[in-house]
Design brief:
By secondary structure, the chain is an all-alpha fold. The chain is built from six helices and no strands.
Length: 110
């Protein structure tokens, strides 16, 4: 039941962003997407599940690192989608971002 509730909340957030952007307000969609709603909801669920404070503290700190690396996706994609078709631009941008995230993961695990 808890998993279903989490999935519904996540789906509502994604559906809201897409709907708002499609209706002509991509700035508001980006604003909602930029709010760390998934992180906040995750931390609240962990708190109520009785997870140790050190776990969601580490989650919050490491999320900063991963968000900084993943932000590279957006300017790369925005540029590439103008110089090549959508799917190759998306795949290349995602691959570059995922490579950076993987390197960071390896670094944090040391």
């Amino acid at each position: 039941m808890e998993f279903l509730l989490k999935a519904i909340i996540g789906g509502i957030i994604i559906a809201s962003v897409v709907t708002i952007a499609q209706r002509g307000n991509p700035t508001m969609g980006a604003l909602i997407l930029g709010i760390p709603l998934s992180s906040i909801v995750s931390i609240i669920f962990m708190y109520y599940a009785g997870v140790d404070v050190s776990v969601y503290t580490q989650l919050a700190i490491e999320t900063v690192y991963f968000v900084l690396i993943s932000l590279a996706f957006f300017p790369i994609f925005a540029y590439m989608v103008y110089v090549m078709p959508f799917w190759p631009a998306l795949i290349i941008s995602t691959s570059i971002s995922m490579s950076g995230l993987y390197v960071l993961k390896l670094f944090l695990e040391r």
